[in-house]
Fold:
Amino acid sequence: MCGIVGYVGSSRVAPVLLEGLRRLEYRGYDSAGVAVHVDGKIEIVRAAGKLDQLEHALEARPMNGSVGIGHTRWATHGRPSEQNAHPLLAGDVAVVHNGIIENHVELKRQLTNSGVEFSSDTDTEIVAHLINRAHTEGVSLMAAVRQALTQVRGAYALAIVSRREPDCIVIAKQSSPLVIGVGDGEMLCASDIPALLPHTRRVIFLDDGEIAQLTATEARIETLDGKPVERAAKTVDWSPVAAEKSGFKHFMLKEIFEQPRAVEDTLRGRVSLETGDVVDSELGLDGEVARQIDRVVFLACGTSYHAALCGRYWVEQLAKVPAHTELASETRYRDPVFTSRDLVIAISQSGETLDTWAAVKTAKEHGAHVLAVCNVLDSAIPRMSHGALYTHAGPEIGVASTKCFTTQLVALLLLAIWLGRRRDTLNSHRAATLLQALVEIPHAMRITLERKDAVHAAARRWMHAEHMLFLGRGLGYPIALEGALKLKEISYAHAEGYAAGEMKHGPIALIDENMPVVVVMPRDAHFEKTLSNVQEVRAREGQVIGIISDGDQEAAAVAQMTLSVPNVADAVLPLVTIVPLQLLAYYIADLKGTDVDQPRNLAKTVTVE
Ligand code: G6P
Structure:
């Protein structure tokens, strides 16, 4: 869960690396550093803390050089400190690493016994020493890296520079992401595409078990056992400004406001209102699979798991297939049962979450058909799956997921409609009505976003609450969970999401006049029941903040405060009811002054178990 970046070209490299790291900071932000070739030496500057600290350190020590590597860290081995920050130097080589070396204890013992002294507590330094040891007279850096990696077990994306080879960077990948950016007379590498965008949109994804040598004009890719790999560059359609704040105070706020556009992009080309169907070729699935399956299993973590809960609801309702949701981190440690008649839908905005990836691998080994729903082209989970349905949210930088979540919802509803059509459980008329409702969502979202001031007022009223309960039923339940997750992630308030019907089995004991309760209570099929739960809260003097439908007097009468959303079809309600909850979390966090885009202890891509 770190970010790495490398550059070979003719620009001054330190600012290039810093800019790249800024765009990767979401991956980790407890320390950072760069290594640059300067006049026959490798100079290293590192700093504990966020990237600004590295920037100050670089201002104090400007470096010339036009070849270098950089890193932003999320500590796994060794506390966050300058000493443990990457790059790690060993003799002639400097290394940056994202991942975990699993056999580090054994390797460290061997190296220590042979006289190596360590200057950090990281597993990465072991790799640096192994490479340095292999990089003897006459052995190229590429050959030395290859040789060192035969001893290493685990996950890595590595970028390495050697004092003796000042015109190149060597990179290698196993499980952690790494992408090459092919520029004009310059070559880059990074953990993720946004870091490349200021220079190029032409990218080559490295595969597991591959190694490459980058010079200003060439990317020579080989497998670890020495076979040359020919792979053409792909052009990505993300614009360079997509990863900038564009006048918003935080990425998260920008991304909340981008949702109407992100939903439009995710729908584009996938909907036929005339035939009442979802366009076949866009789904990453074969119609035959749709007819053969007898179960759908959703695998996901975090926010993506909340999208899965909505997906389950839609699949059961529209395609009449039994559906289950699984927390990927739990699945992989059970002895899960999957069969060839399962369709597994793995949801992951990053495409990298290790738990989800491993659960997908297990499902695939058991013969299940796997479809990934993902926002990052060609990332690890889509690659591990049989097909991929991409959300087109664009780069999401804020650690708390917003537009990726809503575009996942869109993708899952499209999928459920498509399954229903293939399985003859949904007629074209009903499908067309649902699709029409989806097409109208961006407009309803825009209206909801325009009401931000009302949400801001609610945030001012509740910003000091230490606890908050979120309730909902049906599709409102995952939205309550997601609203609570958003709040705790970025404002550090304790928030719990609950199925409204479960309140009486425990959480009701918490309710008194100091407990704010956010209730997702639009006019859907569950409204009457949810209303009863609200009465139960009021009877115990709980403070109700209702997410209600426009013009609903009855709901407005029972809640102390309401935030209303446009009247849309029941099936698409989550796409609008989540918006005020995202804004509420954002404004409370901003009023409290927390670090909204990079909340403490979190990272956007979680590549540890
Ligand atoms: C992290 C992120 C969350 C995300 C979760 C799953 O915890 O901070 O926003 O929901 O990982 O990530 P994925 O990329 O698999 O959706």
The pocket of 6-O-phosphono-alpha-D-glucopyranose is lined by residues 301-304, 348-350, 353, 356, 399, 401, 602, 604-606 (CB under 6 Å).
